[in-house]
Structure formats: structure tokens, C-alpha cells
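In this section we walk through a basic example: taking a raw amino acid sequence and producing a predicted 3D structure, encoded as C-alpha cells. The instruction is simple. Fold the sequence below.
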Amino acid sequence: MAKDKSLTNLAKRKKLSSDVTVDVEETMETKVKKKKKKMEVEEAPVQIPDVKITTSDRKQKKTQKKKQTETHELEGEEDLSPEEKRVLERKMKKILKKEEKKKLKTEGETIEKAEASGPIAPQQALDYLTCWAENRTEWKFQKTRQTWLLQHMFDFVQVPDEKFSVLLQYLEGLRGGSKDTTVQKALVLVEESGQAPEDSDVQQRAHRAREVIQLLS
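The resulting C-alpha cell sequence is shown next.
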């Protein structure tokens, strides 16, 4: 009986020892897994969201930076010596002068372009009229050229006398609203001539206006 008890106790101790070993191994395994997971989290790269900087954003930042710089310069100007202030003033004058020259140059180029393109329209209109008179087979109606002629027909500088006589022949085929508008304009010029009898330019335009009225009425 004593021997059986001893065997039973030995079996219980082995089982208990086995259970403790299993628990220890499970605990260790759990700790290893947690540690491994923590290391993966720490080593995971931080994702930085893409931020697109547009051209307008760059311009805005540049403008803000420029304003801040100018503000700092103005604030620091109070601390400058008289000599430094004179140097700064000369520098500012040079900058303003340079900008003014650049502006005048740009305006001059614009005026030159306008002057260069100015004579094109009158010449094209007169060429259109000449083509109608001398080369009818090659001539094609162009509303833009006719409009220019009707607007400047009473101007003896834009339309010389030799071209005006050709224009009168061209006007014989004028119809519709263009004809009515031309007659009305001519009537106004004739009325104005009565208020300036000594103005040769006004009288010359009125003379042309009378010829147009006689032709189209």
C-alpha cells in the first residue's frame, strides 16, 4: 500500500511539473510575439501624405516673402546712419528709374507696332477699290474693305480725289442699310457745313457729301 501511494504522488508531481512547463512556454511565446509585433510597429515607415504645390501657391509665397523683406527693410531704415540712408535712397532711385525706362520702352514698342500696322487697312481698302475698277474678274467682295471705304469716304486725306471718283462708281451698286446709313451721314455733313462756311476742310467734305446724296437719292 505504501508503495502504491508513493507511485501515485510521483505521478502527480510529474504532471504538475509538466503543466508548469507548458504554462511557462506559453507565457514566453506570448511575450516574444508581443515584442516582435512592437518592433514591427516601430520599424514601419511613416507615410507622409503627398502635398502638391501649385504655381499659384509658389507665387503667393514669393509675394509674401517679398512683402516681409520690404517691411523688414523699412523697419530697419530707422536704425540706419545718414550716409546709409543716402545710399539706400540712391539705390531706390536707380531701381525706379530702371523700371520707368522699361515701361517707356514697352509703351514705345506698342506704339511702333500700332503705327506699323496702321497704314495697312487704308492701303488694303484702296487696293480693293482699284481691283474692282481695273480687274473685275479677280475682284471679290469684302465687307471689311467696303466698311472702311464708307467710313472714310469724306476724308480727302484718307481717300484722295482720284480714288473718290472711282468710289462714286462703286457706290452705284450700294443697297440696303449701308446705302441708308451713307446718305444719312452725308446729310449731316451738309448741315454742319452751314455752321462753318469759312472752314475749307468742312466745305470740302460737304462737297463730297452732296455728290453722294445726288448719286444715292
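Looking at the output, two observations stand out. The chain has a mean pLDDT of 74. The longest helix spans residues 2-43. In the next section we compare this with other chains.
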